[in-house]
Amino acid sequence: MSDSKFGERLYTLRTGAGISQEQLAQRAGISVRALSDMERGRTRGPRQRTVEALVAALGVDGVVGHELEDAARSGRPRSVGGAGPRPAAATGPGAGVAAGHGLALPRDLSDFTARGPALAGLRVLVEHLDPARPPVAVICGQPGLGKTAFAVHAAHVLAPSFPDGQYAVDLRGMDPKPVPPREVLARLLYALGVAETAVPAATDERSGLLRSVLRERRVLLLLDNAADEDQVRPLLPGHGACLTLVTSRRSLAGLEAVHRTELALLRREEAVELLTRVIGSERVERETQAARDLAELCGYLPLAVRIAAQRLASRPGETLAKLVTQLTAHGDRLDTLQAGSLRIRSAFTLSYRQLSPVARTVFRRASLACGPDFSPTTAALLAGIPPRQAARCLERLTDAGLLQPHSTADRYRFHDLLRLFAAEQLVADDDPAQIAAAQDRAAHWILRRATVAALRFDADRHQDAPDGDPDPATAPTDREQARIWLEAERPQWLAALAQAQAAGRHQQVIDAAEAMHWFSDMTAHWELWAEVFQRAVDSARALGSRRDEAVHLNFLAWACNFCIHDHPAALAAAQAALAAARDAGDQLQAGWALGYAAGALRRLGRTEESLVQLYEAAACLSNHPDAQVRLAELTILNTLGQHLRHANRTDEALVIHRRSEALCLAGVPGKSHDLVAFYLALTRHHLGSDLMALGRWGQAESPLRSALAHFEAGRVPAWSEPVRLDLGITLRHLNRHKEARATLTTAHLALVGLNNPRRREAADELRQVAAGLGVAGQSVG
Question: In terms of C-beta density within 10 A (0-12 exposed, 13-18 middle, 19 or more buried), how is residue 372 classed?
Fold first, then answer.
């Protein structure tokens, strides 16, 4: 084959293989323009490395490959130079750079958006560039964050600082076989003007030659899509005024002395700005809310926003609201997020395929976890592997950008779209029996731990370590650890409760809910307690246990009164509890039911009926030797006094609460000092409230401070903050305005966080104390 036939032969091979110029150029790692010039005969004698890349990309046999190489060699000018950094004849700022090299930067995006702080960080690197330590910037993060787009944009912006050239290489880190460093080094050396015959064979020698060539040049290298540290290290300059940008889906944590640029999700306004730049301001201004909704449905992930924008740009007559509806209504949002060859699922699939089989299982099964994040223990239970192995897999998933670690806790979370992708893989790769078994295994374990952790708050038992934890070696060892676990795993154990009930493990549901009773008292601002106790009621009915039904109907009445403030539902639950208790012959539960019914009646404005119920409850519980009944009687008496106070019968209320205080001070046989102290604190809060209602502010302060100190020590904000509010009100009436303001400010912030109805009262009190301070300031002046 003659020299003039190289281009024709190349064209015939490419079209015969059904490959476009763009596809062949991408596979061979050369530019489309260079390939086009070869086929047209404008480029004579391409380098051996280029021909080898074309042969490999075309997949032709050895004979054809030799023919192409022979044709290229016959047209290739003989090299007389070596690898010197500046040929003698070269002049100007780009001297020594191969003209028209095939590693030019990809085009910059005219609509590139945001990333100002990240770009500023790279500018600082360039401004303080030390040739003795050429900087390397690693740009990493989860799939779809726009790492390559940012690196290309940054390279174009910073290009004037590197007059000796900018070179970009796709390392193809997500391919089954990433480009070996040896090949990348050859391509870089050729592009830098090193003659083919001067390029050594060994990787180490090529790496050393690259460092030598770059020593006296100001060059920017863009190493895109790196697989790992070993692929990158040989490509890094040792000296010289160079900047290297490395992008990777992995964190490349093993690379030493590098600047890390971890891209984050876009802010909402940035996502809308990107949308605007692609489809135009007119369409966005016409549908501003739809634009914001669209950004949210894309999870503020740059690739997803761009895909949505490109899709809209290709359909100028389509509204943003229509796409929002499609993304919201479709069960498969990932199918909708595609525009031509741009597909969000494809970006995720590349990373998923790189995982080991076990890591893939952890990734898929983790989508079954409930709540915004999950622990390694939950991941291990769902995957059915040991916790240590799960922890290692989670680290790999984090390194691959498929999970995001919590900043302080040992927990992980998905991006919304990655969770959808993981759930897709779960359905595709795990059969329904495997999924059900994973959920049941995790639910059984988590509910056992939740039950034992909650028992730490049982005032009668917390001194003794409850038994029954599925892994005693990692179980919470005290109340504080139990609280942390129960709060962190709240979505998990709530889902486990539902799973246990669906599996027919009704006694486990009842036991878990009953164990939660004391803990629920301390977290009354959690609305989930209504669901917890309703499930226990349903399980008790399934087992035909009227006694358990009465217990949990009472707990449900409490939750309706204090957690979700649904007082008709509370009254209905209490009345049902009374009927169940009487059927079971349980005097204690009957007394509680009357008390909870009274609370609901008072909140419904039926004060007289509530008082009748409370007097009946007190009579039901009086003169009973059981210690548990004594505690119930204390609660009923306190509630009776509270209702009397609200009925403007405060003198009677004070008498009732003094009686409660005397019972507490006398002690309750068989009950711990700490438990009785808790009831005493409740009683003293009522005493303080009575004295406030009577205008005896000076006398009210002491019982309120006593109650506040106890609840603060026990870290029970649901109890301490209403007391703090009452203390602040008392201090205001005592004209201790500065002290009152500090107390009320703390109470208001906490009550807002607890979603307590008294938060508005706290805000009003703060305004009044501010007015008082203003008057005081004027009088002093």
Answer: exposed
- The first and second tokens of residue 632, run together, are 């119930």
Measure the CA–CA gap between 323 and 335, rounded to whole angstroms. Answer: 12
Please tell me the distance from the alpha carbon of residue 609 to that of residue 613, in angstroms, as a whole number. Answer: 6
Q: What is the distance, to the nearest Å, from the Cα of residue 438 to the centroid of all Cα atoms in its chain?
A: 22
DSSP codes, 692-713 = HHTT-HHHHHHHHHHHHHHHHH
Decide if 226 contacts 232 (C-beta within 8 A).
Answer: yes
- Give me the chain's average pLDDT, please: 89
Q: Which two tokens stand for residue 425?
A: 């893989």
Indicate the residue type of 455: L
Q: Where are the beta strands (DSSP E) in 601-713?
A: none
Residue 513 · residue 493 · CB < 8 Å: no
* Pick from 641, 617, 640: nearest CA to 629: 617
Strands 404-405 and 412-413, bridge-based pairing: antiparallel
Using CA atoms, how far apart are residues 419 and 438, in angstroms rounded to an integer? 17
**How many whole angstroms separate alpha carbon 430 and alpha carbon 308?**
30
Is residue 159 pLDDT above 60, yes or no? yes
Burial category of 670 from C-beta neighbours within 10 Å (exposed 0-12, middle 13-18, buried 19 and up): exposed
Three-class DSSP category at 688? helix
Across 230-253, average pLDDT: 95
Residue (of 124, 123, 156, 154) closest to 139 by Cα position = 154
d(CA 562, CA 525): 8
Query: 63 falls in which pLDDT band (50, 70, 90)?
Result: low
CA distances, 780 to each of 162, 741, 748 (Å): 69, 18, 28
Does residue 413 have a pLDDT over 50? yes
E-assigned strands of 532-684?
Answer: none
CA atoms within 13 A on the CB side of 236: 21
The SS3 assignment for 136 reads strand
The first and second tokens of residue 132, run together, are 């003795």
Distance separating alpha carbons of residues 200 and 208, to the nearest angstrom? 10
Q: How many CA atoms lie within 13 A of 536 on its CB side?
A: 30
**Closest Cα to residue 42, out of 16, 20, 10, 65?**
10
Mean pLDDT value of segment 538-545: 98
Rg (CA), the chain: 36
Q: Which of 238, 211, 212, 241 is nearest to 126 (CA)?
A: 241
Q: How far apart are the C-alpha atoms of 362 and 345, rounded to whole Å?
A: 19
375-390 burial, b if ≥16 CB within 10 A, otherwise e? Answer: bbbbbbbbbebebebb
CB 276 within 8 A of CB 307: no
Q: Is 766 helix (H, G, I), strand (E, B) or coil?
A: helix
Q: How far apart are CA 673 and CA 293, in angstroms?
A: 56
Q: 25, 102 in Cβ contact below 8 A? A: no
Q: What are the C-alpha distances in Å from 641 to residues 217, 597, 632, 655, 740?
A: 87, 15, 14, 8, 27
Q: Which of 278, 365, 355, 715 shows the shortest CA–CA distance to 522?
A: 715
pTM, two decimal places = 0.72
- Contact partners, residue 689, CB within 8 Å, separation at least 6: 642, 645, 700, 726
Whether residue 231 contacts residue 176, with contact meaning beta carbons closer than 8 Å, is answered with no
What angle do helix axes 203-214 and 181-191 make, rounded to 10 degrees?
A: 30
Query: Cα separation of 528 and 536, whole Å?
Result: 13
Structure tokens given for 332: 């498969």
**Token output for 112:** 């590139």
DSSP letter string, 296-322: HHTTT-HHHHHHHHHHHHT-TTS-HHH
Which of 224, 265, 43, 219 shows the shortest CA–CA distance to 138?
A: 224
Q: What is the pLDDT of residue 781?
A: 25
